[in-house]
Amino acid sequence: MVKFVSLATLVCALSVTTVSAKEIKDHNQMMNHGDGHLMDMDGGMVMGQNTDTLPGGCDKIAATKEITVHAGHKYSEKFPGTMFAFDQQEFQFEPCTKLTVHFINEDDIRHQWMMHGLPKYLYPKGMFHLEVSGPGKVSGTLILPPGDKTYLVHCDIAQHMEKGMKAQLKVGKGSEDLPSIPGVTAAIFPDDYSGKPYDPILDAPVASTPVVVPAVPAAPVAAVDDSVVSGTTVIGLAIGFIAAPWLAKRFKGMSAGEIVATVLEQVAAGVGFIMQLVGKLIKMVSGKNVIALPDK
């Protein structure tokens, strides 16, 4: 009887171990469908792979890096209110880095590691995409663009990002932190675990009162001095000739739409910097003490 019980216990323990230990299948025999699209029949996929074409503005590969990213339900346990997560929520690399990502899915469902906002002239649909159905591993490579920018990385399966599977990847210094990155930035709509009942009046969003701005008559347009126009034109042409080699190098390989988008992005960044500088100057001036004049 004792031997029978011991044998039954051993069989049960082996069964539990077999069930709990998930076999991670390495999807390394995928078919190449062209344009950086690799896929097999077992649920492994890579989209937007680029191993050798330099983005516009990159003279050479600045660095070669590899990272391994795990995805699964267990990584969400440290983030209350979430269901899925990556084991890392933030990445940072030098511009023009050749990056290989090894993506490991530890759940019995489909997960993705998708990076958005890449230049479309080089990455179709502007994204780099790794996907695995069930426990498995898939690897893909891309070359990061130049400049300082923060890119969204997430799982695009319905509700997986909303339930925590979201991260950010900074190239260079990055542009700005993205909202609602678990453990990195505050949530736009934070979960409330206070147990307080919902009050439709107190918790309703406050509607802003529209501000009516009185119309101001347009000032008469002053005549423009021809000498000023000609001088400005000459200066602009000189700057254009000087900057032409740099611009050709910076926008090499880009389509007209990508060039316009890049210029607008740089202009927006410049305007934002100027606004911040003006705000700081106003704050400094308003914070100074007013010197009182002596009585006569």
Characterize the structure shown.
This protein has 2 domains: 25-171, Cupredoxins -  blue copper proteins (Immunoglobulin-like, Sandwich), CATH 2.60.40; 192-209 and 234-290, no CATH class. Helices cover 26% and strands 23% of the residues. It contains 3 helices and 13 strands. It has helices at 2-20, 226-250, 256-287; strands at 25-26, 31-32, 38-39, 44-47, 63-72, 85-86, 90-93, 97-105, 110-116, 127-133, 136-143, 149-154, 166-171. The strands form 2 sheets. An 8-stranded mixed beta sheet has the order 2-3-4-10-9-12-13-7, with no helix packed on it. A hairpin with a 4-residue loop joins strand 3 (38-39) and strand 4. The longest helix has 32 residues, at 256-287.
Summarize the structure.
This protein has helices at residues 2-20, 226-250, 256-287; strands spanning 25-26, 31-32, 38-39, 44-47, 63-72, 85-86, 90-93, 97-105, 110-116, 127-133, 136-143, 149-154, 166-171. It has 296 residues and is of the alpha+beta class.
CATH homologous superfamily classification of the largest domain = Cupredoxins -  blue copper proteins
Proportion in helices: 25-40%
How far apart are the first and last residues' alpha carbons, in Å? 113 Å
Low-confidence stretches: 1-5, 8-20
The largest sheet has its strands arranged as 2-3-4-10-9-12-13-7
The appropriate CATH architecture of the largest domain is: Sandwich
Biggest sheet details: 8 strands, mixed
Would you state the CATH class of the largest domain?
A: Mainly Beta
Share of residues in strands: 15-25%
Order of helices and strands: HEEEEEEEEEEEEEHH
Average residue-wise pLDDT: 80
Number of domains: 2
